[in-house]
């Protein structure tokens, strides 16, 4: 604990000094003094104390003024009038001479440390009721960058003191139950990092949307960090997997998304900052390479471990020295305070064509009339329950934001001001749409959905939706494993709290269609495409010199996010099972796919993997899976082969996989096979010698056993997984597989819809069932009840 004074260097502070210098400055002191051995770099600086703030008030007789104005607010006076009056009184007051002198002495010391007179500094507000576990107060007070010279520094400090009573700060303290006159303000003064010549951003030690704790989320943009925090830019986003972070032979960066980064903040010509356009090269380039991302994530984990709580940190890279530093750290409050025992889930029960899309923040649905604003308005001008649509938000917007049913912005990423505040308020937000203020008409009724993965969508009209609550503590234990069917990597982490036994089906074709979006053979042989498709392919793969690497990289990152979400439980990844007509719809797919009369039983699944027409494409799939397992270290990935008709075909596929470095048994690799063809049932014992387990594909098994087109409306009554021919096939498979020491699972919708079918599976001895996440709780209960009866 530091001793009372007007000004204290960071290295004399620790986290016990929140009451003396506020949460922000206490954290900087804690890191500077306690985490240097872990490699965490914090720029030097100092803080004014709460005693200095009270001295300012008493020196100028301001306590009576504050009391008077706050009494006016309590009596109904407009917040804007009260805030303006208090700020004017503070700004007109005189800084006590002893305080100004001590600030000057500390600033001179910083100059000596930096080796130059009048160094540039960042001047930040740090309230004594800030960065607490129960309330963050993030962005409530002012920050000034590139402040140079003592007169400018004293003015910035003075303006920070006044900012304790911004309208948003007064509103937030009132909402959170803090006494205005019990909160003091400290000013932090820190040597500037020349990130105007490089980049800066923020990072969280968990996934900000779901609270998933095993990742570090790093956001980065060019220039000073204010553009990321304020939401002016769409930043790069890097996801780092914590469990492999300390293993130098593995790559823990499991996902990279390049943001638009159209603007950056740089030093102003006469002090402070200005915002300019970025170059085309900057927009196309990563701000950080993998080694820098990994270093930052390592620091973040060290800080989290030291504090014992998830953390929200700001970082900056110096464009002169190349060094990266942590410039702020605070506890993460939104996910940390969320009840973990109950999951609320929202599902749209009708759909439409989205008017705009962007990044989804939160996992809810909001509806209401559009209110398009370019600046905050008085609360009586914003009807409660309206959808706020604006370019960007900053802390001045918060009183309006808390009245909104949803928020939509043109700019910003998942760590922008709009994103952070909407999470805290529990309001769904779609950020970074690009053109919402132009497309969404004032007064139009819309539905804002953040319940469909990482892409948020704004639909026309008031669409119907369902809200469900899952009490995880009440879910029963079961001997039969209940797993998840997951397809979208972007949505995988939001289900991490479900006590599932892993992923029973992750479909590679979904990732290819939605995240790769190009036919692998087209990437390898672009010369066979027409001019228009080649141009589209060039645009899609921009930044990749090797188009094959584009496919492998995108596919690997998609699989890795799903695998990470359930680590270390098994994640069964089914290799691609497009039909030829579906493959043909991918970008560039037409020249590589034959036209078949019945694609459902045509050239699909295993038959493609060793054929000359797709063998190279399957090799890219194998490269991606090998990267996930061997380079990223996610060895919980289990490979599953679909639609494998014969034993000879099984041998040929396993041989091709081995040639591509995926040899069954190597590095613990398990290879399973779908059981969806009668031959898989009849020859179960022989297939069991080649594979480590079976997964029943009930739709195809029913179709091929009964000879029924599963998509035929005329035969809908005949298509029934409960037909004795199908159920006896499943019983036979389980019996033969178990005799050979192999497991059998089933992935499909039927257990979700039919408790009797679930009971049949349990009675037959199925090892696992895999269902959609929103069906998990119901199926878990059905399985438990079936086990109880048996």
From TrEMBL:
Coiled-coil stretches are none
Highest taxon above the source species? Bacteria
Query: Any idea where the PEP-utilising enzyme mobile domain is?
Result: 382-453
Give residue ranges for domain Pyruvate phosphate dikinase AMP/ATP-binding. Answer: 19-340
Q: Please name the Gene3D superfamilies in this protein's record.
A: ATP-grasp fold, A domain (3.30.1490.20), ATP-grasp fold, B domain (3.30.470.20), Phosphoenolpyruvate-binding domains (3.20.20.60), Phosphohistidine domain (3.50.30.10)
Which named protein is this? Phosphoenolpyruvate synthase
Task: Indicate the family of this protein.
Answer: Belongs to the PEP-utilizing enzyme family.
Q: Where is the signal peptide?
A: none
The reaction(s) catalysed by this protein are: pyruvate + ATP + H2O = phosphoenolpyruvate + AMP + phosphate + 2 H(+)
Q: Which InterPro entries match?
A: ATP_grasp_subdomain_1, PEP-util_enz_mobile_dom, PEP_synth, PEP_util_AS, PEP_util_C, PEP_util_CS, Phosphohistidine_dom_sf, PPDK_AMP/ATP-bd
Pathway(s) annotated for this protein in UniProt: Carbohydrate biosynthesis; gluconeogenesis
Source species of the chain: Streptomyces durbertensis
- What's its EC? 2.7.9.2
Task: Provide the cofactor list for this protein.
Answer: Mg(2+)
Q: Tell me the ranges covered by the PEP-utilising enzyme C-terminal domain, including all copies.
A: 476-787
What keywords does the record list, in alphabetical order? ATP-binding, Kinase, Magnesium, Metal-binding, Nucleotide-binding, Transferase
Provide an example Pfam family for this protein.
PPDK_N
Which SUPFAM superfamilies does the entry link to? Glutathione synthetase ATP-binding domain-like, Phosphoenolpyruvate/pyruvate domain, Phosphohistidine domain
Function in brief: Catalyzes the phosphorylation of pyruvate to phosphoenolpyruvate.
Q: Which gene encodes it?
A: ppsA
Tell me yes or no: is Hydrolase among this UniProt entry's keywords: no
GO molecular function of the protein, one example?
pyruvate, water dikinase activity
């Amino acid at each position: 604990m530091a001793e009372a004074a007007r000004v204290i260097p960071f290295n004399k502070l620790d986290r016990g000094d929140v009451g003396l210098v506020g949460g922000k400055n206490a954290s900087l002191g804690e890191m500077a003094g306690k985490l240097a051995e872990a490699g965490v770099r914090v720029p030097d600086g100092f803080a004014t104390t709460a005693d200095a703030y009270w001295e300012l008030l008493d020196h100028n007789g301001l306590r009576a003024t504050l009391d008077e104005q706050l009494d006016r607010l309590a009596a109904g006076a407009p917040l804007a009038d009260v805030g303006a009056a208090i700020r004017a009184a503070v700004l007109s007051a005189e800084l006590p001479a002893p305080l100004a002198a001590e600030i000057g002495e500390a600033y001179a010391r910083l100059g000596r440390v930096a080796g130059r007179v009048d160094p540039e500094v960042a001047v930040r507000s740090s309230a004594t009721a800030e960065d607490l576990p129960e309330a963050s107060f993030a962005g409530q007070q002012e920050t000034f960058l590139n402040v140079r010279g003592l007169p400018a520094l004293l003015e910035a400090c003075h303006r920070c003191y006044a900012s304790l009573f911004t309208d948003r700060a007064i509103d937030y303290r009132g909402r959170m139950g803090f006494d205005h006159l019990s909160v003091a303000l400290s000013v932090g003064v820190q040597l500037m990092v020349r990130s105007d010549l490089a980049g800066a951003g923020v990072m969280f030690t968990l996934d900000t949307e779901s609270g998933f704790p095993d990742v570090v989320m790093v956001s980065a943009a060019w220039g000073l960090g204010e553009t990321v925090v304020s939401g002016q830019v769409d930043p790069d986003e890097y996801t780092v997997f914590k469990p492999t972070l300390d293993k130098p032979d593995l790559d823990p960066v499991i996902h990279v998304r390049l943001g638009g980064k159209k603007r950056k903040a740089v030093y102003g010509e006469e002090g402070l900052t200005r915002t300019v356009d970025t170059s085309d090269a900057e927009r196309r380039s990563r701000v950080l390479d993998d080694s820098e991302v990994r270093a930052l994530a390592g620091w973040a984990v060290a800080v989290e471990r030291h504090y014992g709580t998830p953390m929200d940190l700001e970082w900056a890279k110096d464009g002169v020295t190349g060094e990266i530093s942590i410039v702020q750290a605070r506890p993460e409050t939104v996910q940390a305070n969320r009840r973990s025992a109950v999951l609320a889930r929202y599902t749209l029960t009708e759909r439409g064509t989205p008017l705009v899309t962007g990044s989804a923040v939160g996992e809810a649905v909001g509806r209401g009339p559009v209110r398009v604003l370019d600046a905050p308005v008085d609360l009586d001008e914003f009807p409660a329950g309206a959808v706020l649509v604006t370019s960007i938000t900053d802390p001045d917007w918060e009183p309006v934001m808390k009245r909104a049913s949803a928020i939509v912005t043109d700019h910003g990423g998942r760590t922008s001001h709009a994103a952070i505040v909407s999470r805290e308020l529990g309001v769904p937000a779609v950020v970074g749409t690009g053109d919402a203020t132009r497309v969404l008409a004032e007064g139009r009724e819309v539905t804002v959905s953040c319940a469909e993965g990482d892409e948020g969508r704004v639909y026309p009209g008031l669409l119907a939706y369902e809200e469900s609550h899952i009490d995880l503590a009440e879910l029963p234990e079961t001997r039969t494993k209940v797993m998840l069917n997951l397809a979208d990597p972007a949505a995988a982490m939001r289900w991490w709290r479900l006590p599932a036994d892993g992923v029973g089906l992750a479909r590679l074709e979904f990732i290819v269609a939605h995240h790769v979006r190009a036919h692998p053979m087209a990437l390898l042989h672009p010369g066979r495409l027409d001019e228009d498709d080649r141009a589209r392919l060039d645009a899609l793969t921009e930044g990749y010199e090797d188009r094959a690497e584009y496919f492998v990289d995108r596919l690997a990152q998609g699989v890795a996010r799903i695998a990470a979400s359930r680590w270390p439980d098994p994640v069964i990844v089914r290799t691609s099972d497009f039909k030829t007509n579906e493959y043909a719809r991918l970008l560039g797919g037409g020249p590589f796919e034959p036209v078949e009369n019945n694609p459902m039983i045509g050239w699909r699944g295993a038959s493609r993997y060793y054929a000359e027409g797709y063998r190279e494409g399957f090799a890219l799939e194998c490269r991606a899976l090998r990267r996930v397992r061997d380079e990223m270290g996610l060895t919980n990935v289990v490979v599953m082969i679909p639609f494998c008709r014969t034993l000879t075909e099984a041998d040929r596929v396993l041989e091709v996989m081995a040639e591509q470095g995926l040899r069954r048994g190597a590095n613990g690799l398990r290879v399973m096979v779908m059981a969806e063809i009668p031959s898989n049932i009849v020859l179960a014992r022989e297939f069991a010698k080649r594979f480590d387990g079976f997964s029943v594909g009930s739709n195809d098994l029913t179709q091929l056993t009964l000879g029924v087109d599963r998509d035929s409306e005329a035969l809908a009554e005949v298509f029934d997984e409960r037909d004795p021919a199908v159920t006896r096939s499943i019983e036979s498979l389980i019996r033969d597989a178990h005799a050979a020491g192999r497991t059998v699972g089933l992935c499909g919708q039927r257990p979700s819809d039919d408790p009797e079918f679930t009971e049949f599976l349990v009675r037959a001895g199925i090892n696992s069932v895999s269902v959609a996440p929103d069906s998990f709780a119901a199926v878990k209960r059905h399985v438990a009840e079936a086990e109880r009866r048996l």
